[in-house]
Amino acid sequence: MLFKKERQETVTEEAVLQALRQIIDPDLHRDIVSLGMIKDLSIEPHGDGSAVNFTFELTTPACPVRDRFQRQAEEVVSAIPGVTAVTVTMSANVRTAAPHRNQGQVELPSVKNVIAIASGKGGVGKSTVASNLAVALAGSGASIGLVDADIYGPSVPMMMGVTKGVQAENGRLIPNEAYGVRLMSLGFMTEAGRPVVWRGPMVGQAVRQMLADVNWGELDYLLVDLPPGTGDASLTLAQSIPLSGVVVVTTPQDVALGIATKALTMFRNLQVPILGIIENMSYFECPNCHEQHHIFSHGGGQEAGTALHVPFLGEVPLDIGIRERGDAGRPEPGPIFESIARKLAAQVSIRNSLSIPLAVR
Question: Are 193 and 299 part of one and the same domain?
Answer without folding.
Answer: yes
